[in-house]
Amino acid sequence: MIPEPDVDMMADESSELIHTQIVKKDPSKLRLKPNLLGYEDLRTTFRWSDAEKMVDWFPGGKINAAYNAVDRHALGKRKDKVALIYDDGEGNFSKLTFDQLYRQTNKFANVLKKIGVKRQDRVFFFLSRSPALYIGFLGAIKYGAIASPMFPAFGPDGIKDRMLDSGAVAIVTDGELKKRVYEVVKDLPELKHIIVTGKEVAQNEVSLDTEMAEASDQFEATHMDPEEFSYMLYTSGTTGKPKGVVHAHKDIVQMHLSTYWVLDVHEEDVYWCTADLGWVTGVVYGVLGPWSNGVTQVGLGGRFDPERWYKTIQSYKVSVWYTAPTAVRMLMAKGDDLPNKYDLSSLRALYSVGEPLNPEGVKWALDVFDSKPFHDTWWQTETGSILITNFPEMDIKPGSMGKPLPGIEAAIVDENGKPLGQGEEGHLCIRPGWPAMMRQIWKNPAKYNEYFRNGWYYTGDTAQTDEDGYFWYVGRADDVIKTAGERVGPFEVESALIEHPAVAEAGVIGKPDEIRGNIIKAFIVLTPGYTESDALKTDIQKFVKSKLAGHAYPREIDVVKNLPKTRSGKIMRRLLRARELGLPIGDTSTLED
Ligand code: WTA
Question: Do domains 27-52+250-476 and 99-246 have the same CATH topology?
């Protein structure tokens, strides 16, 4: 039951919760006029060619995403505007203007040039969040390399899988994280340059600080074909190793537009995206989209900490905030006294992505953030941009992902591509061809083609629509696990598990969890000679963490005698999940015995 808000408190506000639990909006009462007004009309009148005019092009139809995010502002009226307020999480902060960001990214591009990196070479980043990460990532794109940031939580196997598959020639890392790179460096024959920040730089490495100090701060952004690649990120599917999702420079058109329309940034805003750069949200809405719009961004280092988060909003007067449901749930769990201690009145719009946002989260925000609701947004690494969302001018139905971006055709369809009616559950599909759509799965055209069937792009999610055209998330159509917003493939975890000497076989599922959305749960068969114990389980967990990634280890492990398999030997995760959750077992005709 959602209580009525205090109407007096809402004098200056735009959101109102009514009995049907819809968050009613009155755009005329919003603090700033939304950039998108008249959604229904725009859905018919909008053309992508309109959005192409919002970014800068070079002669001959060439473009550069980083030029749009940095150079055009530095060379124009936003030269001295603050682009980045960076807080290291320990109370130290620094600021970079667009002009400074321009010069620094130019320097980085010149460093790549000097060491001999070539156009469209893969340059990886294995760095904690820091100004160097933003500068390197943008500088690499400006130069014409394909930039790829990795989560600092990755273990040696996580690093190796990505860098080997992509044939990365360079990695930018720091004195601490480089140790994990060296564990697999012998397996990376194409890796030529290890670029290290800070003072502890070995002979065979490139000192980023030294090279940056010497490099010229002038560089003309490389004129790229719109279809040339700008960044790539590895993401998990059901089977096999993570796959390299590759994006093009032209994505900037939709990054720009979606940031403008959905996140609704205005010239005077202070915008904060909490996502790490290892996640697509950090790349698209923590770097390129907002800076293409010339907005001041906050970057916060360190780990998640509720007090620090509220303090960040208060200190830098954050007005637009983009975060994730797990973080929202963690903040909720901390109680309402904590936010009440801070002045959070600068906030005017809140957004969330990555997992279903519970209606309770929307409601909680209304209570705690002075009648401002969270706006849920839906998209994927592959889509490269928000595609389905709640817009500032639109009423919110808590629990719904909202409606498609103008220019996007989304539908619920069956296995054969037949559109389903309102209220019917089916595959969430998008008509291919939007500007930010992935261009490739690196060196794996077969995997790429699997996404496209019957004239649709199949997202791997299931959903349904309601009578007003709102989309409602149902679940994944595959075994991919979303834990605390991170996408984890069960196969990767199973592969890491069976490398442990005590594990003979492993099956991995996502188990619903109140805070994290899902946790990773493993069922293992022990190698003969080993006996089950808590110490052994802890050891197995540590093992997976150190190999794969800090977030991709099983928080629960059950030892079982055998795993349900198909006759062809495939582990039936569906069955493991059904058993765990007490759900109907369904069709077992392919079961081994
Ligand atoms: C899930 C994240 C429910 C979904 C930008 C999708 C969501 C996957 C939402 C992509 C949402 C993302 N509601 N589920 N608003 N947003 N998802 O590639 O399953 O990390 O397919 O990109 O996250 O995850 P990815």
Answer: yes
Which atom of ligand 1 has the smallest separation from the CA of 476? Answer: 19
* Check whether domain 483-581 has CATH 3.30.300.30, yes or no: yes
Which residue's alpha carbon is nearest to atom 25 within ligand 1?
Answer: 380
* Pocket-forming residues, ligand 1, beta carbon under 6 Å: 235, 280-281, 353-356, 376-381, 401, 459-461, 473, 476, 482, 487
Whether domain 99-246 has CATH 3.40.1550.10: no
DSSP code string of 391-460: -TTS-B-TT--BEEPTT--EEEE-TTSPBPPTT--EEEEE-S--TTS--EETT-HHHHHHTEETTEEEEE
What angle do helix axes 131-143 and 98-115 make, rounded to 10 degrees? 60
Residue 508: pLDDT band by 50, 70, 90 thresholds?
A: very high
3-state secondary structure of 145: coil
Q: Identify the weakest region by mean pLDDT among 404-418, 522-536, 578-592.
A: 578-592
* pLDDT value of position 60: 98
Q: How far is the C-alpha of 374 from the C-alpha of 362, rounded, in Å?
A: 5
Burial class (CB in 10 A: 0-12, 13-18, 19+), 102: buried
**pLDDT (tens digit per residue) in 461-476:** 999 999 999 999 999 9
> Which tokens go with 100?
């400074």
The rounded Å distance from CA 21 to ligand 1 centre is 24
CA of 460 to the centre of ligand 1 (A): 10
Cα 231 to middle of ligand 1, angstroms: 19
Which residue has the CA at smallest separation from atom 23 of ligand 1?
Answer: 354
Helix axis angle for 534-547 and 156-166, nearest 10°, is 30
Two tokens, residue 288: 């390129």
Distance CA 168, CA 443 (A): 13
Atom 14, ligand 1: which residue's CA is nearest? 355
Q: How long, in residues, is the chain?
A: 593
Under CATH, to which class is 27-52+250-476 assigned? Answer: alpha beta
Going from the Cα of 475 to the center of ligand 1, the distance in angstroms, rounded, reads 10
Tell me the CA–centroid distance for residue 584 and ligand 1, in Å.
26
Q: Any idea where the domains of the chain sit in the sequence?
A: 27-52+250-476, 99-246, 483-581
**Rounded mean pLDDT, 106-119:** 98
Pair of tokens at residue 268: 């005077």
Which ligand 1 atom is nearest residue 377's CA? 15
According to DSSP, the residues that pair with 396 across neighbouring strands are: 23
